[in-house]
Amino acid sequence: MEKTEFKAKFKKRLAEKFAMEVSDASANELYQTLGSIMTAAYSQDWQQTWQDYRDQEQKQAYYFSIEFLPGKMLKSNLLNMGWLETVEEALQEMGISLEDLAEVEPDMALGNGGLGRLASCFMDSIASCGLPGNGNGIRYEYGLFKQRFVDGYQVELPDEWLQKGNSWEIRKESKAVDVHFGGNVYLQKDGKDQLKPVYEGGYTVRAVPYDTGMVGYKNNIVNTMRLWSVEIPAEEEDRYRSIEDRRVIEDLTSVLYPDDSNQEGRKLRLSQEYFFVSAGVQSILRYYKRLGYSFDQINQYIAIHINDTHPAMCVAEFMRILIDEEDVSWEKAWNLTIKVMSYTNHTIMAEALEKWSIPMMQEVCPRIYQIIEEIDRRFVKDMTGVQPADLIERTRIIQNGQIHMANLAIIGSHSTNGVAKLHSDLLKSVVLNDFYVMYPTRFNNKTNGIAQRRWSQLANRSMTKVLNETIGTSWNSHPEDIRFLMNFAEDDKVLDALAEAKHENKVKLAAYIKKVKGIDVSPDAIFDVQIKRLHAYKRQLLNLLHIMKLYFDLKENPKLAIHPRVFIFGAKAAPSYHYAKSVIKVINEVANLINNDASIDNKLKVVFLANYNVTLAERIIPAADVSEQISLASKEASGTSNMKLMLNGAVTIATLDGANIEIRDAVGDENIAIFGLTETEVYRYYQEHNYNSSELYHNDPVLHKVLNAFVDGTIPNIAFEGQEIMDSLLKYNDEFFVLRDFAAYCDAQETINQNYQDRRRWKQISLKNIANAGRFSSDNTVKRYAEDIWQIEPVFAHNSEKGANQHGTYLL
Ligand code: 26Q
Hints:
The protein contains 32 helices and 25 strands. The chain has 812 residues and is α/β, with parallel strands linked by helices. Strands 1, 4, 7, 8, 11, 12, 13, 14, 18 and 19 form a 10-stranded mixed β-sheet that branches. A 6-stranded parallel β-sheet has the order 22-21-20-23-24-25, with helices on both faces. The chain has a 3-stranded antiparallel β-sheet with strand order 15-17-16.
């Protein structure tokens, strides 16, 4: 694509769309103009991709996820289309800054954190690897709440991301399906002497899909992320005349539930789950029928992935359609279902495993409940005599009046995977051990990964430039090639250039911090970053205790030889998670205390940036020196910000948890700071019931002093929250062993402090982290899913042989 051509096109489109010239248009109008040129340019390939999958009789995978968290799409689409630089320059020549346009795009925040972001990294990689795979989810009217701080407290505001429209989606009215809720169901023999459900009452809503193109990286492949929105069917308009009646329906796709693992099951949440499951499975089967193959071979054409248990009803919905609507026998349908379905577990916290009460499921989707009951009945029958009775009781789906969704997902699928080696091992040995005994071959590991192009080429252009100049550009499309950087570990020019790039990013982040918080931070300080949801197990509190320790050390000895540090936090707490909100308040008050204490000579700063989201992550990560991955060993399934920070040259301080272990294996012990209890030691405490937090408090004078600050007025304005945290640590015996890991953490932090001051050594550590991050590319991860679980194969792009498109870039 030529710049001149693009400029002409841009002006023409702006005139057509808004009857304007560049000088009159707002950033938003310019952004929409650019968006429409881009979607027009890839829509042909989008259509063609569908046709290719169909013509080449490709098996396709469908990734069912109740959350997707793509963030902004403008620059990532430009990058993948091969347009980024040309468009940026062309816009500049017209006096427009691409950054200003990117600024007006709202984050697409239809997810809480790791799980939703992983789904979006996978969407990027699946398309970029030319794999036939699509997303299926919910188009929430409101994404994850926006966070503000008022007097240090978290306040939640609605995320009205659709207010100005969405350039990337297409409403596909013709692909709508109906979803039935509620009422009664009984079985009656039909003409062919088969039992068929008869529905009484209940109500039907229309599910309308909004499709978003998932543009592959320079390969002309455009897959689909299909998000469903609820509408009232025209035929039913009369029934839903009152505002309240309509509200009940519209609520279905209105808001994303904030991650609230401990929350009692809510009816609306269950309805959301059935809504997108039923709509998705129906549309897949409708498409499959059009292809004209028999249902006997459906597993050769369709793979359905269940991302955590939220879409586990896929198992029952798929059964329902095959037996009720397609006259397939139960046995045959069940065999096919198992072959089609696969499931990923994302958590080992027992309280987070989803369960629904029988009456609630009967009320929301009575036929699905019947089918689950029958699956459960047959499971018990088939296992009786084969497995011990107590094992069957512990693994069956319905227990004590509750439906265990993980059990449904495991029993109804051929593959269950964890998201890091340790996590998958713990699933086998502890959490899901009963199932592992029954189905050993169903279990496997798929370590998470990240969309490296977004987290390096887009987010960190200064580092990208150095890498491109040093090792060439093959790593842009083959993330593993970033390992060539290892050859430059002794090259001072490269080490300095990387450090200079990091410094540039820190200057930018410092300016942002000044702008939004009014805090002065020096780019020469260590930028120490903890960014993730606020959860007790992630132990933001441990970080805070160490900050307090440093503060007291400095107060006692202002000459202390520590390198200045800026501690940066980003974290949202679920609105109903009281304890997590208290931690936020306390961090904010500690920040006030430390940032305004002139006596410590700016050696410490604490910055809690509000509203952590994908876009803020893209600002913070390239500027990070230290990556805080300090969850209690065994609790963090994988973590993915650990990978993003590593790729950007941050040095990790970590427990041996989740993917941290694999990061350590990749970089070696000398290039990471590991501390704390191991998973074995944690489990030993559980077994022996001999953890005693008060003892630690009473025997460690440092800990004593730091904890007292929470309740003796040293930290102002936290009378209530300080006591609550103190109680969690002492009265309730410190569930996540914060006090036990405190001393080891402080030592590891001191190692970081010393290493940083040996500048050459630090630069080398940083380089080695970047160079070894390639294995954590989600390209890698999705290829393993494709081969081991979904059995799908890459397609060759239709027009990759055509001259103009041979580099996978797009024509206007
Ligand atoms: C539950 C009930 C009601 C409403 C919401 C929820 C809910 C929503 C989201 C429960 C859990 C989640 C999200 C979980 C999650 O993000 N898990 C993370 O998944 C990442 C990707 O695999 C891992 O890297 C993280 O370790 C894991 O915590």
